[in-house]
Amino acid sequence: EVQLVESGRGLIQPGGSLRLSCAASGFTVSSIYMNWVRQAPGTGLEWVSLITSGGSPYYAESVKGRFTISRDNSKNTVYLQMNSLRAEDTAVYYCNAHGGDAFDFWGQGTPVTVSS
Amino acid sequence: QSVLTQPPSASGTPGQRVIISCSGSGSNIGRNYVYWYQQIPGTAPQLLVYRNDQRPSGVPDRFSGSKSGTSASLAISGLRSEDEADYYCAAWDDSLSGRVFGGGTKLTVL
Protein backbone atom coordinates (compact mmCIF):
# COMPACT_ATOMS: atom_id res chain seq x y z
CA GLU A 1 0.00 0.00 0.00
CA VAL A 2 1.32 3.42 -0.96
CA GLN A 3 1.63 5.85 1.90
CA LEU A 4 3.15 9.32 2.30
CA VAL A 5 3.63 10.75 5.77
CA GLU A 6 4.70 14.34 6.18
CA SER A 7 6.29 15.72 9.32
CA GLY A 8 7.89 18.97 10.43
CA ARG A 9 4.83 21.06 11.18
CA GLY A 10 5.55 24.20 13.11
CA LEU A 11 5.09 27.79 14.14
CA ILE A 12 8.10 29.70 12.88
CA GLN A 13 9.05 33.36 13.15
CA PRO A 14 9.59 35.34 9.95
CA GLY A 15 13.11 34.83 8.71
CA GLY A 16 13.34 31.42 10.35
CA SER A 17 13.92 27.96 8.91
CA LEU A 18 12.07 24.66 8.94
CA ARG A 19 12.63 21.29 7.32
CA LEU A 20 9.67 19.19 6.19
CA SER A 21 9.98 15.46 5.67
CA CYS A 22 7.91 13.10 3.54
CA ALA A 23 8.42 9.44 4.36
CA ALA A 24 7.20 7.11 1.63
CA SER A 25 6.23 3.46 1.71
CA GLY A 26 4.92 1.13 -0.95
CA PHE A 27 7.14 2.57 -3.68
CA THR A 28 10.62 4.05 -4.16
CA VAL A 29 10.92 7.85 -4.11
CA SER A 30 13.88 7.72 -6.48
CA SER A 31 11.76 6.07 -9.17
CA ILE A 32 9.17 8.80 -9.51
CA TYR A 33 8.65 12.55 -9.50
CA MET A 34 8.10 13.88 -5.98
CA ASN A 35 6.40 17.23 -5.50
CA TRP A 36 5.65 19.60 -2.66
CA VAL A 37 2.38 21.46 -3.07
CA ARG A 38 1.01 23.99 -0.58
CA GLN A 39 -2.36 25.47 0.19
CA ALA A 40 -2.66 28.73 2.09
CA PRO A 41 -5.75 29.14 4.28
CA GLY A 42 -8.88 29.54 2.17
CA THR A 43 -7.00 29.44 -1.12
CA GLY A 44 -6.16 26.98 -3.87
CA LEU A 45 -3.29 24.63 -4.54
CA GLU A 46 0.14 26.07 -5.32
CA TRP A 47 2.98 23.93 -6.64
CA VAL A 48 6.19 24.57 -4.69
CA SER A 49 8.92 22.19 -5.80
CA LEU A 50 9.72 18.97 -7.61
CA ILE A 51 12.55 16.49 -7.61
CA THR A 52 12.66 14.22 -10.63
CA SER A 53 13.55 10.55 -10.63
CA GLY A 54 16.93 11.65 -11.97
CA GLY A 55 17.42 13.97 -9.02
CA SER A 56 16.87 17.30 -10.80
CA PRO A 57 15.14 19.94 -8.67
CA TYR A 58 12.62 22.51 -9.83
CA TYR A 59 11.14 25.40 -7.86
CA ALA A 60 8.29 27.86 -8.08
CA GLU A 61 9.50 31.42 -8.55
CA SER A 62 8.03 32.37 -5.17
CA VAL A 63 10.41 30.05 -3.28
CA LYS A 64 13.46 29.96 -5.54
CA GLY A 65 16.63 30.67 -3.59
CA ARG A 66 14.92 30.06 -0.24
CA PHE A 67 13.68 26.45 -0.43
CA THR A 68 15.68 23.33 -1.25
CA ILE A 69 14.23 19.94 -2.14
CA SER A 70 16.25 16.79 -1.58
CA ARG A 71 15.81 13.10 -0.98
CA ASP A 72 17.47 10.30 0.98
CA ASN A 73 17.09 7.09 -0.98
CA SER A 74 18.23 4.99 1.98
CA LYS A 75 15.35 6.38 4.07
CA ASN A 76 12.95 6.58 1.12
CA THR A 77 12.23 10.13 2.23
CA VAL A 78 11.96 13.49 0.51
CA TYR A 79 12.72 16.76 2.28
CA LEU A 80 11.90 20.41 1.83
CA GLN A 81 14.33 22.76 3.57
CA MET A 82 12.64 26.13 3.95
CA ASN A 83 14.78 29.16 4.83
CA SER A 84 14.05 32.88 5.13
CA LEU A 85 10.42 32.08 5.80
CA ARG A 86 7.81 34.77 5.22
CA ALA A 87 4.24 35.20 6.39
CA GLU A 88 3.05 34.32 2.89
CA ASP A 89 4.63 30.87 3.24
CA THR A 90 1.96 30.00 5.79
CA ALA A 91 0.08 27.03 4.39
CA VAL A 92 -0.60 23.32 4.60
CA TYR A 93 2.22 21.59 2.76
CA TYR A 94 1.43 18.38 0.89
CA CYS A 95 3.87 15.80 -0.40
CA ASN A 96 2.79 14.33 -3.75
CA ALA A 97 4.12 11.34 -5.66
CA HIS A 98 3.36 11.89 -9.33
CA GLY A 99 4.05 9.24 -11.93
CA GLY A 100 2.49 11.11 -14.83
CA ASP A 101 -0.15 8.44 -15.14
CA ALA A 102 -2.63 7.00 -12.63
CA PHE A 103 0.12 6.79 -10.02
CA ASP A 104 -0.58 9.94 -8.05
CA PHE A 105 -0.63 9.91 -4.27
CA TRP A 106 -0.74 12.63 -1.63
CA GLY A 107 0.20 12.83 2.01
CA GLN A 108 -2.18 14.12 4.65
CA GLY A 109 -0.49 17.53 4.70
CA THR A 110 1.46 19.32 7.41
CA PRO A 111 0.67 22.88 8.52
CA VAL A 112 3.33 25.57 8.60
CA THR A 113 2.61 28.91 10.23
CA VAL A 114 5.02 31.81 9.87
CA SER A 115 4.19 34.47 12.40
CA SER A 116 5.85 36.57 15.06
CA GLN B 1 -3.73 34.98 -10.33
CA SER B 2 -3.33 31.37 -11.35
CA VAL B 3 -1.68 30.44 -14.64
CA LEU B 4 -4.62 28.16 -15.44
CA THR B 5 -8.03 29.83 -15.31
CA GLN B 6 -11.07 28.11 -13.85
CA PRO B 7 -14.44 29.51 -12.88
CA PRO B 8 -14.51 30.03 -9.10
CA SER B 9 -17.84 28.28 -8.71
CA ALA B 10 -20.25 25.90 -10.40
CA SER B 11 -23.50 24.34 -9.33
CA GLY B 12 -26.13 21.85 -10.35
CA THR B 13 -28.97 19.76 -9.05
CA PRO B 14 -28.77 16.01 -8.46
CA GLY B 15 -28.74 14.10 -11.74
CA GLN B 16 -27.62 17.08 -13.80
CA ARG B 17 -24.47 17.37 -15.88
CA VAL B 18 -21.92 20.03 -14.99
CA ILE B 19 -18.85 21.10 -16.94
CA ILE B 20 -15.85 22.84 -15.37
CA SER B 21 -13.48 24.61 -17.74
CA CYS B 22 -9.74 25.19 -17.47
CA SER B 23 -8.04 27.67 -19.76
CA GLY B 24 -4.29 27.85 -20.26
CA SER B 25 -1.76 28.65 -22.95
CA GLY B 26 0.57 27.07 -25.44
CA SER B 27 3.29 26.55 -22.84
CA ASN B 28 1.12 24.46 -20.54
CA ILE B 29 -2.15 22.89 -21.70
CA GLY B 30 -1.21 23.39 -25.34
CA ARG B 31 1.83 21.14 -25.02
CA ASN B 32 1.33 18.97 -21.96
CA TYR B 33 -1.12 16.64 -20.31
CA VAL B 34 -3.90 17.96 -18.09
CA TYR B 35 -4.76 16.44 -14.74
CA TRP B 36 -7.89 16.98 -12.64
CA TYR B 37 -8.13 16.70 -8.86
CA GLN B 38 -11.01 16.62 -6.42
CA GLN B 39 -10.51 18.04 -2.95
CA ILE B 40 -12.97 17.67 -0.13
CA PRO B 41 -12.26 20.60 2.26
CA GLY B 42 -9.87 19.58 5.02
CA THR B 43 -8.49 16.61 3.08
CA ALA B 44 -5.76 16.02 0.51
CA PRO B 45 -6.52 16.27 -3.22
CA GLN B 46 -7.34 13.08 -5.10
CA LEU B 47 -6.64 12.36 -8.77
CA LEU B 48 -9.77 12.24 -10.91
CA VAL B 49 -8.39 12.39 -14.45
CA TYR B 50 -4.87 11.96 -15.81
CA ARG B 51 -3.37 12.53 -19.24
CA ASN B 52 -6.31 14.68 -20.35
CA ASP B 53 -9.03 12.04 -20.40
CA GLN B 54 -7.97 8.93 -18.51
CA ARG B 55 -9.65 7.81 -15.30
CA PRO B 56 -7.80 5.99 -12.51
CA SER B 57 -9.43 2.78 -11.39
CA GLY B 58 -12.06 3.51 -8.79
CA VAL B 59 -13.12 6.83 -10.27
CA PRO B 60 -16.72 6.60 -11.51
CA ASP B 61 -17.29 6.98 -15.24
CA ARG B 62 -19.56 9.92 -14.37
CA PHE B 63 -16.32 11.92 -14.43
CA SER B 64 -14.74 12.59 -17.82
CA GLY B 65 -12.00 14.88 -19.02
CA SER B 66 -11.24 16.38 -22.40
CA LYS B 67 -8.75 18.76 -23.94
CA SER B 68 -8.77 20.92 -27.04
CA GLY B 69 -5.95 23.29 -27.90
CA THR B 70 -5.12 25.34 -24.84
CA SER B 71 -8.27 24.49 -22.90
CA ALA B 72 -9.53 21.51 -20.98
CA SER B 73 -12.74 20.58 -19.26
CA LEU B 74 -14.07 18.21 -16.66
CA ALA B 75 -17.60 16.93 -17.08
CA ILE B 76 -19.54 15.43 -14.21
CA SER B 77 -22.75 13.70 -15.17
CA GLY B 78 -25.46 12.31 -12.92
CA LEU B 79 -24.49 14.80 -10.24
CA ARG B 80 -24.60 13.48 -6.66
CA SER B 81 -24.42 15.21 -3.33
CA GLU B 82 -21.05 13.63 -2.61
CA ASP B 83 -19.59 15.40 -5.66
CA GLU B 84 -19.72 18.65 -3.72
CA ALA B 85 -16.02 19.59 -3.48
CA ASP B 86 -13.30 21.79 -4.94
CA TYR B 87 -11.93 20.79 -8.35
CA TYR B 88 -8.50 21.74 -9.70
CA CYS B 89 -6.87 21.34 -13.09
CA ALA B 90 -3.08 21.04 -13.37
CA ALA B 91 -0.43 20.83 -16.07
CA TRP B 92 3.29 21.22 -16.54
CA ASP B 93 4.36 24.61 -17.89
CA ASP B 94 7.39 24.53 -20.17
CA SER B 95 8.05 28.27 -19.87
CA LEU B 96 7.95 28.29 -16.07
CA SER B 97 9.61 24.87 -15.75
CA GLY B 98 7.07 24.03 -13.11
CA ARG B 99 3.69 22.57 -12.45
CA VAL B 100 0.76 24.96 -12.54
CA PHE B 101 -2.68 24.62 -11.03
CA GLY B 102 -5.94 26.32 -11.77
CA GLY B 103 -7.45 28.48 -9.06
CA GLY B 104 -10.02 25.82 -8.28
CA THR B 105 -13.77 25.54 -8.82
CA LYS B 106 -16.10 25.06 -5.89
CA LEU B 107 -18.92 22.76 -6.95
CA THR B 108 -22.20 23.04 -5.10
CA VAL B 109 -24.93 20.44 -5.45
CA LEU B 110 -28.20 22.26 -4.89
Please give a handful of descriptors for the protein shown.
heterodimer, A: mainly beta, seven-stranded mixed sheet, four-stranded antiparallel sheet, 11 strands, about 55% strand, B: about 110 residues, six-stranded mixed sheet, three-stranded antiparallel sheet, 9 strands, about 0% helix, globular
List the helices and strands and how they pair.
The complex is a heterodimer of chains A (116) and B (110).
Chain A: E1 3-7, E2 10-12, E3 18-25, E4 33-39, E5 45-51, E6 57-59, E7 67-72, E8 77-82, E9 91-98, E10 104-106, E11 110-114
Chain B: E1 9-12, E2 18-23, E3 34-39, E4 46-49, E5 63-68, E6 71-76, E7 85-93, E8 98-101, E9 105-109
- The general outline of chain B is globular
How can the largest sheet of chain B be summarized? 6 strands, mixed
What's the pLDDT, averaged over the residues of chain A? 96
Percent helix among the residues of chain B? under 10%
Share of helical residues of chain A:
under 10%
Distance between the termini of chain A: 40 Å
Uncertain residue ranges of chain B: none
Q: Low-confidence stretches of chain A at least 5 residues in length (pLDDT < 50)? A: none
The strand count of chain A comes to 11
* Largest binding interface between chains: A-B, 20 and 26 residues
Radius of gyration of chain A: 13 Å
**What is the subunit arrangement here?**
heterodimer
Span from first to last CA of chain B?
28 Å
Rg of chain B computed from alpha carbons, rounded to a whole number of angstroms = 13 Å
